[in-house]
Amino acid sequence: MNVQQSPLPIIVVAAPLCVAFILPLVGLWRRSAVFPLSIAALTTCFAASVMTARAVLTRGPLDYYLGGWEPPWGIAFHIDHLSALMLLLLSFVTLVVGIYSKRSVLHELRTKEVPFYSVYLLLVTGLVGIVSTADMFNLYVFLEITSLTSYALVSLGGGPAVVSAFRYVILGTVGAAFYLLSVGYLYSVTGSLNMADLAHILPDLYTSNAVLVGFAFFTIGMAIKMALFPMHAWLPGAYSNAPSAVSALIAATTTKVATYVLLRVMFYVFEPEFSIEMIPVTQLLSWMGAIAMLLGSVMAIAQSNLKRMLAYSSVAQIGYIVLGIGLANTTGFIGGVLHLVNHAVMKGCLFLVAGAIVYRTGLREIHELRNLSVRMPWSAAAFTVAAFAMIGIPPTGGFFSKLYLILGSIDAEAWIFVAVILLSSVLALAYFANVIRYMYFPASAEGDKTPATDGPVASHDAPMEMLIPIVVMALSILGLGILNGEIVSLFLEPAVPASFAQ
Amino acid sequence: MALESIIGHFNVVAYVVLMMVGFYAMTGKTNLVKKLVGMNIFQWSIILFVVSLGAKRGATIPIVESSHDLTSTATTTLQAAHYVNPLPHVLMLTAIVVGVATTGVALALLIRIHKQYETLEENELLERIRATAQTNTTETNDQ
Fewer CB near the last or first residue (10 Å), C or N of chain A? Predict the structure, then answer.
């Protein structure tokens, strides 16, 4: 392995981190400078991610040693194909949501602009940090930065959001504490915290009880953080009560990053054989994922509030990703990661539209969305594209990731999972069709109770600052579908753990 | 045998007991402040455990006297068993800072909750949330 040294990964993390601490001062001086400065930081982060990804694609994994200390003594950042893809995804989504957030923050939070962007940038720091770092304890710190800032952002919603945020604090801390405990156990037997170093030392210790216990705690901790089905209690409240921009941001990023950590540790720090054979954790995860897919979808159907429906749909979608990871074969792995990327963009887009609807009309309930296609045509169209992707209609990204998941299940000869994926897609069709019906065909949705002739409804879509991010997200959903072959061959195939059977 | 392993792994037993106390407070108590205290006990049981990993019987602080004298060959006689492992302590210092920050955020949230709903009992809180949701929007909240 010829690993190249490069300062690019540190720029990705440092740009939002530095600006986050400068922002409060800038806010004292001139409040209007806060927003452009945050966008500049997010753009730098995105640009550095693109350059990192290009370097990784052309020359292989990148390393940066903090303070010049070589691992395993120092903390290193290590970017391989998988983390490069995650960096691109995270910096893109946070930039788009950041641009969108301006109007929404002015509308919902008014005077809290400065702390909002400061915390927002800290959250971005945590997210990209988790993806970049190659040190288990450093990962814990970034994980907690991410969690603490998301608690704060969720609580900005006021009222019930604060209660949801408190519940999130308790559960999130338990998850992080379990992670810390597992790091303690692994350190106690290996004496190392560096991921690559751990991967060298651990295979001789696979039978050690400390390693087994550490691994179990790790899995549960991450399952809480990513809201895998029985541990999802914090998610619906947090997503649905948070301010619009925050919902979009955390729905698209925080659970995805926790899933990434699970993936990274399960298949790269431990060997896949350990996760598959020593304790059948992958099988367990597949089953939990399958249950999450079904129950999450069923609960989503039962919701009348749009954001709450989207939140439960997230529970189901996490199930897809975990199922793909749990299949532990090449196709399943590709499907899982591809769905992770797709879901971040689709769910981000859906929450952005939900936010735009609240901004323009103040409506939160699904049955109130009558005639939205006339009132907000672009937003409704973007919502429809994202909903099609969630259901899995080609040529959106969601179709291809589900296709890979189904092929992966067939490879694993797990026919029941094929059935579950199809059934869950039908359920997704049920709850999204309901929304789309109200948006486009109110007459058929209402019986003929209130005919759609409330007089000609004027088209009054969201303002440009919100609409452009929404449309960009919708287009990237289509882009992810059209370019799925490139993503798989460039990023995912080199990232597949070498020892997967096929 | 069983007793020996309990005494031998005293730190493990201690952390598990503390952790369960914290877990009980988090799940069994309805008062949000008690839940928060439980969360703290839970976190700190883990911190104590990891700190105890670095301890060694009869070892001293990890400062090597001759370490600056690079020309001497004193390093060959160094025994790792003579020195306490400092790394877990340093790590837990960071974890404590994280824990303090979490507690701070949680307390701030509790103040906000108390200002708005004037209670910190979970069941009363849920009732009041439901009541305000109904008066505000005349819609039933499914929570």
Answer: N
Residues 6+ apart with CB under 8 A from A319: A228, A229, A288, A289, A290, A291, A292, A293, A294, A296, A424
From the candidates B91, B116, B136, which should be mutated to test the interface with A, based on the most A CB atoms within 10 A? Answer: B91
Which ranges in A394-451 belong to alpha helices (H)?
397-411, 415-440, 442-445
Q: Is B101 within 8 Å of chain A by CB?
A: yes
Give the gap in angstroms from C-alpha B22 to the nearest C-alpha of chain A: 10
Please check the confidence at residue A173 and state whether its pLDDT lies above 90: yes
User: In angstroms, rounded to a whole number, what is the distance separating the alpha carbons of residues B68 and B75?
Assistant: 11
The whole-number pLDDT of residue A465 equals 83
| A171-A173-A179 Cα angle (round to 5) | 110
Q: Under a CB-based contact definition with an 8 Å cutoff, are residues A151 and A35 in contact?
A: no
Contact residues on chain B for A180, CB-CB shorter than 8 A: 46-47, 50, 95
User: Which residues of chain A lie closer than 8 angstroms to B39, CB-CB?
Assistant: 169-170, 173-174
Nearest CB among B112, B125, B132 relative to A155 is that of: B112
Q: Is the peptide bond before A469 cis (omega within 30 degrees of 0)?
A: no
pLDDT at residue A145 is higher than 60: yes
Residue A145's closest chain B neighbor by CA?
B98
Name the CATH topology of B2-53+82-137: Helix Hairpins (1.10.287)
What pLDDT shows up at residue B69? 54
Domain boundaries, chain A: 286-502
**Which of A25-29, A228-232, A290-294 shows the lowest per-residue confidence on average (mean pLDDT)?**
A228-232
**How far apart are the C-alpha atoms of A373 and A395, rounded to whole Å?**
22
Inter-residue contact A431 to A301 (CB < 8 Å): yes
DSSP characters for A259-326?
Answer: HHHHHHIIIIIS-HHIIIIIS-HHHHHHHHHHHHHHHHHHHHHT--BHHHHHHHHHHHHHHHHHHHHH
Model confidence at B131, pLDDT cuts 50, 70, 90, reads confident
* b/e per residue A36-70 (b: at least 16 CB within 10 A): ebbbebbebbbebbbebbebbeeeebbbbbeeeee
Structure tokens at A311: 């939140």
- Contact A188/B at CB under 8 A: yes
With b for 16 or more beta-carbon neighbours within 10 A and e for fewer, the B88-122 pattern comes to beebbeebeebbeebbebbebbbebbeebbeebbb
Q: Is a pLDDT exceeding 60 seen at residue A320?
A: yes
Nearest CA in chain A to B94: A141
Q: Which 3 state secondary structure label does DSSP give A410?
A: helix
In angstroms, the separation between the Cα of residue A395 and the nearest Cα of chain B is 35
ipTM of the complex: 0.86
